[in-house]
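Work Package 4 report. The design task specified in the project plan requires that, given a folded chain encoded as structure tokens, an amino acid be chosen for each position. We show below one input record used in the internal validation round.
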């Protein structure tokens, strides 16, 4: 199954699914039923040993919108699943401009060492605000950390 995703233009987004099989299948991608090969820079494909796989868009563009199909292939056959990527502009048309604000305050988060950490604090404003995350007053810049346009931070 492939989970659909949405983002604000210029923000990262992740399209993720999970596959099973023995042997573990290889994954290739289609976008709107045409072959899609991630560039490995702005759009990265990944596949983990636990069967999770996906596409990570570091900075979305309007042209990223569409139906993405993961094609899982092994010696035993082929399976497909499709998810949508929706991209919206930063400025909401027909809505007054508003200052950035947090929809709810952040709370404390606990996670066992080695597990995925997910921190979410929804952000409001028109145009949709840009934001950054810091730890101990310093910007977070790590390949294991992903930021999403809805205010989510995920560390793997």
């Amino acid at each position: 199954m492939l989970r659909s995703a949405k983002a604000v233009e210029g923000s990262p987004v992740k399209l993720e699914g999970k596959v099973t099989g023995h042997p573990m299948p290889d994954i290739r991608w289609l976008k709107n039923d045409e072959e899609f090969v991630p560039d490995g820079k702005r759009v990265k494909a990944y596949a983990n040993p636990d069967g999770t796989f996906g596409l990570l868009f570091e900075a979305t563009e309007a042209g990223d919108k569409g139906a993405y199909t993961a094609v899982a292939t092994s010696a035993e056959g082929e399976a497909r699943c499709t998810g949508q990527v929706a991209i919206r502009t930063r400025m909401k048309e027909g809505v007054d401009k508003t200052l950035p604000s947090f929809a709810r305050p952040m709370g404390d988060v606990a996670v066992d060492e080695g597990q995925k950490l997910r921190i979410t604090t929804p952000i409001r404003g028109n145009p949709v605000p840009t934001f950054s995350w810091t730890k101990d007053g310093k910007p977070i810049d790590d390949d294991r950390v992903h930021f999403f346009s809805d205010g989510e931070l995920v560390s793997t």
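Residues 151-156 have pLDDT under 50 and may be disordered. Validation will be extended to a larger panel in the next phase.
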